[in-house]
Amino acid sequence: MEQESHYGGHGTTRPGGRTARVRSAVLRAAGDALAELGFAGLDLADVARRAGVGRTTVYRRWATPTGLVADLLTEMAEESLPRAETGSLLGDLRANARLVRRTLTDPRQGPLFKAVIAAATCDAATADALRRFYATRIAEWAPCVEQAVERGELPAGTDPHEVVRAVSAPLYYRLLASGDPLDEATADRAAEAAAAAAAAGIYVVRT
Amino acid sequence: MEQESHYGGHGTTRPGGRTARVRSAVLRAAGDALAELGFAGLDLADVARRAGVGRTTVYRRWATPTGLVADLLTEMAEESLPRAETGSLLGDLRANARLVRRTLTDPRQGPLFKAVIAAATCDAATADALRRFYATRIAEWAPCVEQAVERGELPAGTDPHEVVRAVSAPLYYRLLASGDPLDEATADRAAEAAAAAAAAGIYVVRT
DNA sequence: CCCCTAACGGGATCGCGGTTCCATTAAGCT
DNA sequence: AGCTTAATGGAACCGCGATCCCGTTAGGGG
Lengths: 207, 207
Prior knowledge:
2 copies of one chain form a homodimer. Chain A has helices at 17-37, 44-51, 55-62, 65-78, 89-105, 109-120, 124-151, 160-178, 184-199. The first copy, chain A, is mainly alpha-helical. Chain A contains 9 helices and no strands. In chain A, α1 (17-37) crosses α2 (44-51), α1 packs across α4 (65-78) and α2 packs across α3 (55-62). Chain A folds into 2 domains: 17-77, Arc Repressor Mutant, subunit A (Orthogonal Bundle), CATH 1.10.10; 83-199, Tetracycline Repressor, domain 2 (Orthogonal Bundle). Chain A is elongated and about 60 Å long. At the A-B interface, α6, α7, α8 and α9 of A face α6, α7, α8 and α9 of B. The first copy, chain A, binds a DNA duplex through residues 7-8, 11-19, 22, 43-45, 53-57, 59-61.
């Protein structure tokens, strides 16, 4: 959700130099604040202070906490983590599960993801940005499943995206709902469960 | 999280009649407000108005939005939905998945659950109340898995709670993160995937 | 049935987050 | 390099949500 939309209009817009510097400083500060205080504690004035930027600027460009989070999400979607290539479906899914687990248990990233998801439940535009974020992340890893189909490990017609989602789902469920510990054994189990269900043909698209 | 803890102390506490009536009116109003406006829009003064109760009372007894949500969660944990008894693991899990799906897509309950989870990410006490809520819900359905083990449908040593969680996880993942549609086919797939993974022995506790 | 006081409710008050105004800085075009 | 104006930043302002104060209502023991 580009908040810049109301820039320009008659004159020319200036995304260069200072503006970009302010934007990245504010987004980094917003990430810090979210990780520390959660979404409920996100105060635009505080973000401005952390970023070393005028309060007015932050209110003008992002207006609301959810607007700021939405912009942060579009930036997060751009930096992609490359997928693994272990040669087997289970190996690839396990690598993915461990990566997700490491992210969600990271002292900064974990609280940040919680906060971002909380923000998305409060605002449609933010929810859309979150949806796009996960769509790109999932698409990044889908080829692992496609290769497994080509290798004959999985039945033809298996939905790759659904398999990758199935790996993440239990980890996010623990993070957000059950609150159970998120250890490596849990991550491995998530990968094994997704692989077993996929092998059983559960994710074959029915026509 | 009982907010009543600072009541009494020297005199006697009075949970009867009026107090209980106020509490349930406020909790119902809080549920309505959360479902309509989300956690970010939860205003204690507004809740008081909806409940036909003085602002001061709400501020005194619950103090913060998260405190109110925490109390609401303990009440929600008390009303339990009974589990199904279809005679087969897959039948029971499918019944559970469909029940969860119906709840999450309900025009009132769905937004309410989103809001409650958002609140839990902002406050430790609320997160604990949410954890307890899901623990009771999961425990309610665990016997389905135990019976399946007794019937010989699943290997001995299968962790019942883990199987039940595996059914809910993909549905919550869609609700909160991916934003993909939550239709009945998805619910059935969640049940089938959990059953397949359980049958493959993924949820057997390793000693 | 009466009294004591826990608990509630209305109104006044206070503080802080959000907005507006205008001077200052620096992109970007010629 | 110089000019135009997009964009920033400080400071004053303002409105609304949270708190405080105190009179009123009603639970529950004697």
